[in-house]
From TrEMBL:
Keywords: Cell membrane, Membrane, Transmembrane, Transmembrane helix
Residues annotated as transmembrane: 12-32, 44-67, 79-101, 121-142, 149-170, 176-195, 216-236, 256-276, 296-314, 334-355, 362-381, 387-408
Subcellular localization: Cell membrane
InterPro entries cross-referenced by the UniProt entry: Poly_Biosynth_Transport (IPR050833), WzxE (IPR044550)
Protein name: O-antigen translocase
First-listed, main subcellular location of the protein, grouped into a coarse class: membrane
Cross-referenced PANTHER family: LIPID III FLIPPASE, PST FAMILY PREDICTED COLANIC ACID TRANSPORTER
Domain of life the protein comes from: Bacteria
Membrane topology of the entry: Multi-pass membrane protein
Length: 416
């Protein structure tokens, strides 16, 4: 399937997820103001953290190896049996840990024990989240973009309905609860869709430990957990720093601009993840890899620049539409954030080469180094420039990350 067709289907799925996400932000801004949006960011950070840990962080590995083994029935069966074992074991472990430490987690992230039951519900939902992540990764590995988009669109629609209902009933608490329950509801859509796919086999539901496949998946687990876990922890630390230095209202302004950025970039990052990861994993010669990376830049960079420029021009209207009049102070934060977004997408196109080719050591070291450099830059720039310094730190850090990825990609291609 071409990048254009992949982009079309992934755009449909992303648009649905975007509407669902913005609905939550709008409702929280309506009911709880900037402080509520700031706390929403903390809870969503916890959700993302546990979702990654629940499945052992092997979704990228499943995508890569399903793309490689889809014509090798024996190896594919071994891979998926090991992957399901890995994901379920990790989800049980993480769910139990979250239940055990629900009280200190709630106090640390949200500062209010009123939300402790939400953390417990999230812990109990880890098994279902791990299962849907496994199903979506298998479908992505077969590059069945149409089916993947169908699941995500229908799941997003169910999520919007649940968020609207529970937030009307329970306000902020209900919106956060709906975020958790909607993740599990995705199984109601994903399981039947996968079951009816032409490549589904009952053996894909077999659970078995396989030492070789587990080692292969573990390498991706380390990379995915590093790339997902570290940024989440860094962002939690940034929110805590901004809250102490400027107050929760300012965290809400920073969070609002970050959410707008994440929302429109979903269209591009989803296409990169769905198309380029399995595509790069399947290519092993220098000329084809170089051509694929050039095509990626040619298609995606103009798109992100156009989207960033549009967001900047419409920033005041978007802030009022998505949040409320209380967020007017956020408008001054958009310019450096959007500049950083363009650099971020450019660097992502190259960093996926490390994932696709399992460059575990280089990937993990780079994620740690640039995660910590971002936090250090936030501390340095906010002390000099105020809240907008956090946006300056974001942009400067991705300039450094892009330079690093250019160096890694050049060395890898020259070695082929």
């Amino acid at each position: 399937m071409s990048i254009v067709r992949t982009g079309f289907y992934s755009s449909l799925a992303t648009a649905a997820r975007l509407v669902a996400g913005l609905t939550v932000i709008k409702l929280v801004a309506w009911y709880a103001g900037p402080q509520g949006v700031g706390r929403l960011g903390q809870f969503m950070g916890l959700m993302s953290l546990l979702a990654v840990l629940a499945g052992g962080g092997i979704s990228s590995g499943i995508v890569k190896y399903v793309a490689e083994y889809r014509h090798d029935t024996e190896r594919l069966s071994r891979l998926l049996a090991a992957a399901l074992w890995y994901a379920l074991a990790a989800s049980c472990l993480i769910g139990c840990a979250a239940l055990l430490f629900s009280h200190p987690i709630t106090l640390w992230l949200l500062g209010d024990v009123h939300y402790e039951n939400l953390v417990r519900v999230l812990a109990a939902a880890q098994l279902g989240i791990a299962l849907i992540n496994y199903i979506l990764a298998v479908i992505n590995g077969f590059m069945d973009v149409r089916r993947l988009a169908f699941i995500q669109v229908l799941g997003a629609l169910l999520s919007v309905v649940m968020v609207a209902g529970l937030s009307w009933w329970l306000h902020l608490y209900g919106a956060l609860l709906a975020l958790v329950l909607s993740q599990v509801l995705l199984l109601m859509v994903g399981v039947p869709a996968w079951w009816r796919s032409p490549y589904f086999q009952r053996s894909m539901l077999r659970i078995r430990f396989d030492a070789e496949m587990t080692r292969r998946l573990a390498a991706f687990s380390v990379m995915t957990l590093t790339s997902s876990l570290l940024p989440l922890l860094i962002n939690i630390a940034v929110r805590d720093h901004l809250a102490r230095q400027f107050g929760w209202d300012h965290v809400g302004y920073w969070q609002a601009v970050s959410r707008v950025s994440d929302a429109y970039l979903l269209f591009l990052t989803t296409a990169i993840n769905i198309y380029y990861l399995p595509r790069l994993a399947a290519i092993n010669d220098r000329a084809s890899l170089t051509l694929e990376l050039r095509n990626a830049c040619r298609h995606l960079l103009p798109a992100v620049m156009m989207l960033a420029a549009t967001i900047y021009v419409l920033r005041e209207w978007l802030t009022r539409l998505l949040f409320s009049a209380d967020f007017v102070a956020a408008n001054s934060l958009y310019a450096p954030q959007l500049a950083g977004d363009v650099i971020k997408i450019t660097s992502f196109l190259l960093s996926y080469l490390m994932l696709a080719k399992a460059m575990t050591r280089v990937f993990v070291i780079s994620e740690c180094v640039f995660g910590l450099s971002y936090l250090a830059l936030v501390y340095a720039f906010t002390s000099s420039f105020g809240l907008i310094g956090a946006m300056y730190a974001f942009a400067v850090n991705y300039v450094l990350y892009l330079a690093f990825n250019l160096w890694v990609a050049r060395r890898y291609l020259e070695a082929l």
